[in-house]
Structure formats: C-alpha cells, structure tokens
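The records we work with from here on pair a chain with its fold. Here is one such record, which you should read through line by line:
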Amino acid sequence: MSRDHYTFKDRPSKLPYVGAVLRECTPRNAERDVAALPRLIRVSIELFNSPRDIAVGFGMGDMSMEPTEDCSFPPASFIPLLNEILELLRSTSSTLAVAETTTGGLVSASLLSVSGASKFFVGGATVYTTKPRKAWAGWTDENVVNYRGPTPELVTELAANVREQMDVTYCIGEWGAAGPTVLGPPIIHVAGQTYIAVVSREGFATRVVNTGVTEREKNMVAFTKATLVLLRDVLAGDVELEQQRGPEGSELAKF
C-alpha cells in the first residue's frame, strides 16, 4: 500500500451502531467516508504511526477536536481521597450510588475518574429540581408543597430513597446552595452551605458544610470534596452511623 493511504482500524465491538462498511481509503476521501457514520461517533484513523481523531457531526460537517486548555480532572487534592475510597469499597465488595443537587454531578464524575470505578459505582442522579426528585428520589406532591429548604432530614431521606431504588450498599446525598444568589422566603437557602448524608442498611451519617463564601464554582468543588470526605469517614469507621433521623445527627463542619 502506498504511503498516501491509511486504513480504518474498525471492529464492530468498538464501534456499535456503525452501519457503514469502512474501507481502505485515501486521505482525500477519508473524511467523506467517516461522515457516513452515525452522529458524534469518534473514529480513530491510523496514518502509519500518527493517530488522527475525527468527531463526526452528522448533518453538521466534520468537527476536529483539539484541546485548547488544561482540563485536568479531578483536582489533584481529590486523588488520594478517591484512591482511599476505592480501596475501602473494594475491600468490602460494597456498591455505591449518588443523589446530588448543588454539586451538579461532580461527586459522580469524581468517583468515576478512578480506574476500577465500575466495580463499585452503580449510578448517580442529579436531582436539582422537584421533577427529578419526584421521578427518582421518592418525593411526593406533599414534599413539594412543604419544602422550605434543605435540612439534614431531607438529604438523608433523599439518599435513602435512591439507595433503595438502586439496591446498593451506600448512597451519598448532597443538597445545598452554591450561590451567589439564593431563593427568598419561604425557602431558606444559605449560599455556601450544603447538607450531606451517607446512608447504608445499617444507618446514616450527616454533615453540614459551610464554606463562608458565595462563589458558585468554588462552592461546587468544596461541596464535592466535603461529600467525598464524609463518605471516606463513614467507610473508614471514623463516623458512627445514626439509627434515628434527627437534627442531633448532624455534625457542623467548616471547609
């Protein structure tokens, strides 16, 4: 084969839903052939020793994806914590689910960033509004009418409902306000404050976190780390699980 040819390395197991048969092709018609694939499938084309990635935009033209900035994730300070959580969960063959609001999926994403997460992570829900809370977290119309803001009891119930639905060993719940603005009365939200719960079959532990700042992005990262810290503390046995729900079960923490 001449040097101006390159070959698609395609296997059905790696490219599900691909209806086109890819063939040996020249650089001139490569992108045309790739465009025949379904939308947004990433195809690796090997030009001798030079891999080339094309994100296929069906009907939108081909889009090359080049990194433009450092996108390191998770934050470096999370990595030892996540590795510790991984080992603690693996040592007991425990499974985990997440029900988060203010962190917007960062707790789940952080846990999934660890190699081997599929051994313990079952799923996560970002229950940011009342609609997903009713669909996934056991909320009723009465809960919606009576809601006045997050509390230790509410976040514990949130995690307990999701744990039961997902049938896992542990479920993490997180619910707060990242700021900079918050809802007014009768809803009571404090910017920079969140409530966290870890629920298992044996009981639950809660923690109130107040960062003292109202910057949304900083609070989302701080809330995520605090949630992971409580999970680690529960798994390590550093926090005693409560059997009864109540405000006395909460621990005020400053992060």
In short: Residues 137 and 158 are 6 Å apart (CA to CA).
